[in-house]
Design goal:
This protein is 19% helix and 32% strand. The chain has 231 residues and is of the alpha+beta class. It has a six-stranded mixed beta sheet with strand order 3-4-2-1-12-11, with no helix packed on it. It has a six-stranded mixed beta sheet with strand order 5-6-7-8-10-9, with helices on one face. Helix 3 links the parallel strand 7 and strand 8. The termini are close together.
């Protein structure tokens, strides 16, 4: 079994409008997942450096970033990042270019977690439903192109307010959804914007929304998580 999580960390800016990366790290440690997909992990302007100073992540957590070849000081690419526990083997990683009007992308890593091969994909999709569906098709095509890949887990902020339509329908033709729950807005969660999807070769053991005191202050999204196993 292995545990995954997805978290839109809002550039480490909490509901108090203060940037406190140490608070974000506290939430990451509470999740205690083997793999975490982050959205809005980098600052928006300038050199787009990581919202969490890399030395703080190294000193105060058990996580390491998947090296995506982004700019120096960045945690990911277009704000997307993958963190893994330090004993997780990173076999391969790459960036996925997504069609969009504004810079958007997804990130991919083939991993070995406690002897189990898994492909993790993190994403933050567009606000426009049309562009979300185009982006979903691009991600699905990337997966279908490589039939030798390990079972995939897709995670991220899909920005999909519909319960079943739009890009959810597109992903649902190929993947199952973990029943995590409503993650946005943190003050009154009314919609499940953050999703975890998994290959039918995997099964979900348990899943949910992380609602600790720290998580309710660290971002406007709550993290979602799932424990998965090979069938």
């Amino acid at each position: 079994m292995f545990r995954v999580a997805s978290y839109n960390m809002r550039k480490a800016i909490g509901t108090d409008r203060r940037r406190r990366p140490e608070r974000t790290i506290e939430v990451l440690n509470e999740l205690d997942a083997d793999v975490i997909a982050l959205q809005e992990a980098d600052r928006r302007f300038g050199e787009r450096t990581s919202a969490i100073p890399l030395h703080l992540l190294e000193e105060h957590s058990d996580y390491k970033p998947v090296p995506l070849g982004a700019s120096t000081g960045s945690l990911g690419w277009h704000g997307n990042a993958l963190l893994v526990k330090r004993d997780v083997e990173i076999v391969h990683c790459e960036r996925i270019h997504l069609p969009s009007l504004e810079p958007r992308g997804a990130v991919l890593a083939d991993l070995v977690v406690d002897g189990t091969g898994v492909r993790a994909i993190g994403m933050h999709l567009d606000l426009s439903g049309l562009w979300r569906r185009r982006q979903a098709h691009t991600i699905l095509a990337q997966i279908e192109h490589d039939d030798r890949s390990p079972p995939a887990v897709l995670m991220g902020d899909l920005n999909e307010w519909s319960a079943h339509g739009g890009c959810l329908r597109d992903f649902g033709h190929h993947f199952r959804f973990a029943e995590c729950g409503r993650s946005f807005h943190v003050r009154r969660p009314i919609v499940a914007l953050d999703r975890i999807m998994f290959n039918p070769a995997l099964d979900v053991v348990e899943s949910g929304v992380h609602q600790s005191a720290a998580a309710r202050k660290a971002s406007d999204h709550l993290p979602v998580w799932a424990t998965l196993k090979r069938k």
